[in-house]
Specification:
Strand content: 15-25%
Number of helices: 22
Radius of gyration: 48 Å
Largest sheet: 9 strands, mixed
Structural class: alpha/beta
Oligomer: single chain
Number of domains: 4
Length: about 725
């Protein structure tokens, strides 16, 4: 819980910081977000472009054959004528004719002082051809012009046979240029309509969106591609819809075009350059083309020649013909295949930042390092894939960089928090368990450690108590404390090693007594068997130790062991300055009482019924008694464990006879039970038990009980 609290607090701080950046300083991160979207286009690859759009290219071959640009205007007129005769749908010029054709005979005569109106004027030829062909002229707005007084904007005169309606207009959001660079009057006056062909790049020089409409001196002007579509659709009315934060869309005919708040259209590029059909301008001029390639099509006249400086940078290419940008726009609108940022997308972006970050923070706070790495990779991949999928499947542009920043910071800080907390936790675990359990168990604890591993909780455990019989006598025989401690160490070392080897945890040493337990703090399968195995092995190891002690003229050691299985409270206990991981509860007390019962019964190893029930392996076990120990009201059934495996014939017969006598005793048939117990004196296994039951039977024969339940109550520990 501590880790979760710290992680959530840190994550909340990070999320607040990222949200503030998103709301108030988004432009500082646009470049990064745009670059990610560029990668999406590259990952998607090319898609099929519309075959209704054709580009007439003033390419290198055309320049080699028809001469250096600008061409004589009659050559341009011939291109328009041949396109019209081929049944072209509509023509758009990605070129502005801002100056007269000085190669015209009339202009040449004027330059040498001869005024001859009867001489040919190539501009007039082109003007007449424009007037008689479905041609839309292009022009350029200067969006940023230095040292230009905005109060003295030039008047421009362009034929615009369209009505622009601004719905819910409260504030102008359209781009407002400073001046216009138009075609010469004779061409402009003969045109049916015109449109600007500005392709405004982002701050990194990449063209990702274009303005479809601009406002100059309170008049709205369309882009070349938009005007070509409007004319082709024969729709005179254009509706511009405003929302709370700016422009939302434009409507022309039956088409709805989603725009950003400034009237720009995000371009859903079909692919790299030459995604559309290109026809060389010289082939059109020479009438050397298939008329079916032109018939009824949108034709854009532009250039891909490097020397004419109309190359742009797009997500696909750094030398992308500007004319093909307009082809992509027409394709997007015709096929209604847009990418856009609706007005509500900011709310979605904020939800992505907050929800995704919090979910990841919560998951990571419970994860181990490998799982944290996997979750981190999957989450970041999921962010990229989901925004990629939504972009091209639904056309919605979601912000990637801000959720990515938030996720990256949260993943980084969560790893740092985990590292420090786990390092602290590992040191704590090592300090608590390094001397209690085996190194392998310590490593397992470290591997599975979490914030709650040391917290108090109820758990089923098997508790072990052992104690040396007659320790006072041994102390007196040893003579000196130093010699006594040496003997104790000789005893304790193998006993502790056996406990640790069997997966137990040494809880504490109480003088000459040992307390240990199994199944805490980590779960251990078959913990009853492991505890009993350790107990039997200790008794066998003690026999070997006693042989050594005898050779060294030291007193032999005899022990009693008690095992009980039950629910105990386990966890870190003690004062703030000094504490230990231990366990308390009635089950612990009963384990201690069982160890003490070995003395009156003359046994070495006693277990409770709850321990016996959980055993999976085979042992030689004697049903010993039903007792009520001091401090408990409920009787407890206790058993003596003699050894591993199954009893051999002689011992098996003895135990069968004993259990027969015990049943008679519990059924209050004391006389028959007495006969068998007395007969058992001839056997070799623990005559003290037989003597105990013989005495009890004689007592109850002389003093018959009113109601006998077979329970013997101990008044002392």
């Amino acid at each position: 819980m501590k880790k979760l609290f710290i992680t959530l607090l840190t994550s909340f701080t990070i999320i607040c910081g990222v949200v503030i950046l998103y709301l108030f300083y988004p432009s500082n991160f646009f470049t990064f977000d745009n670059k990610i979207r560029d990668m999406y286009f590259l990952a998607r690859g090319e898609v099929l472009a519309s075959d209704d759009i054709v580009i007439v290219d003033i390419d290198e071959r055309s320049l080699n054959e028809l001469g250096q640009w600008p061409w004589q205007r009659f050559k341009v007129a011939k291109i328009l004528e041949n396109l019209t005769l081929a049944g072209v749908g509509i023509i758009g010029f990605d070129i502005v004719f801002a100056e007269s054709d000085n190669s015209s005979p009339r202009n040449i005569a004027s330059l040498i002082g001869i005024n001859r109106d009867d001489l040919i004027d190539y501009d007039e030829i082109l003007g007449e051809m424009i007037a008689n062909t479905p041609t839309i002229l292009g022009f350029v707005f200067e969006v940023e012009q230095k040292n230009l007084d905005e109060e003295k904007l030039e008047d421009i005169f362009i034929n615009l046979p369209a009505i622009f309606i601004e719905k819910n207009l409260k504030e102008n959001f359209l781009i407002t240029p400073k001046r216009a660079i138009l075609n010469i009057d004779i061409l402009q006056d003969n045109s049916y309509s015109s449109g600007f062909f500005n392709a405004l790049p982002d701050s990194d020089g990449v063209v990702r969106s274009v303005p479809l409409l601009m406002k100059y001196k309170n008049e709205i002007y369309p882009s070349l591609s938009f005007e070509m579509l409007r004319v082709a659709l024969d729709s005179q009315k254009v509706i511009l819809n405003y929302g709370a934060v700016g422009i939302e869309s434009a409507e022309v005919g039956d088409l709805n075009i989603p725009l950003d708040r400034f009237g720009r259209l995000f371009i859903n590029y079909r692919g790299g350059k030459k995604s559309f059909k290109y026809i060389s301008a010289k082939d059109i001029y020479n009438n050397n083309f298939n008329k079916k390639d032109i018939e009824g099509k949108f034709v854009l006249i532009g250039t891909s020649a490097q020397g004419l400086l109309d190359l742009r940078t797009t997500p696909y290419d750094s030398r992308f013909p500007g004319v093909e940008i307009h082809a992509n726009i027409i394709d997007n609108i015709l096929n209604q295949n847009f990418i856009y940022q609706p007005s509500w997308v900011e709310a979605i972006d904020l939800i992505n930042i907050i929800a995704l970050s919090l979910i990841v923070a919560i998951i990571l706070s419970f994860a181990n390092p490998i799982f944290m790495l996997l979750i981190s990779i999957l989450t970041i991949f999921g962010l990229f894939y989901s925004t990629y999928y939504i972009l091209f499947e639904y056309g919605i542009i979601l912000n990637v960089i801000f959720p990515l920043i938030s996720l990256t910071l949260i993943i980084f800080t969560t790893n740092i928090i985990s590292f420090f907390l786990e390092s602290k936790q590992k040191e704590l675990i090592k300090s608590k368990f390094a001397k209690k359990v085996s190194p392998a168990v310590v490593e397992d604890l470290l591997k599975h450690s979490d914030d709650s591993i040391l917290e108090g909780r109820e758990k089923e455990v098997t508790i072990f108590f052992s104690d040396i019989r007659g320790f006072t006598s041994i102390s007196e025989k040893m003579g000196s404390p130093k010699a006594l401690i040496k003997v104790l160490n000789q005893y304790m070392n193998p006993m502790v090693d056996i406990i640790v080897h069997c997966g137990g945890t040494v809880d504490k040493f109480i003088g000459d007594a040992i307390m240990a337990y199994w199944n805490a703090p980590l779960n251990i399968q078959n913990h009853q068997d492991r505890a009993l195995n350790a107990s039997i092995l200790q008794i066998k190891a003690l026999k070997k130790l006693n042989k050594i002690l005898k050779r060294e003229n030291k007193p032999e050691i005899n022990i009693g062991i008690g095992l009980n299985t039950g629910i105990a409270t386990v966890g870190e206990m003690g004062s703030s300055g000094r504490s230990d991981y231990t366990l308390i509860g009635d089950s612990v007390n009963l384990g201690s009482r069982l160890e003490g019962l070995n003395k009156p019964y003359g046994t070495q190893l006693l277990i409770s019924e709850s321990t016996k029930v959980g055993l999976k392996e085979k042992y030689i076990i004697r049903d010993l008694d039903l007792v009520r120990v001091k401090g408990k009201l409920e009787p407890v059934k206790i058993f003596e464990v003699i050894d591993f495996g199954e009893a051999k014939d002689e011992l098996k017969d003895e135990l069968n006879l004993y259990h027969q006598a015990l049943k008679l005793y519990r059924d209050a048939n004391f006389k028959k039970a007495l006969d068998i117990f007395e007969a058992l004196f001839l056997k070799k296994v623990n005559n003290k038990i037989y003597q105990l039951y013989t005495d009890r039977c004689k007592h109850f024969i002389e003093n018959p009980p009113e109601k006998f339940d077979g329970v013997f109550t101990f008044k002392t520990k």
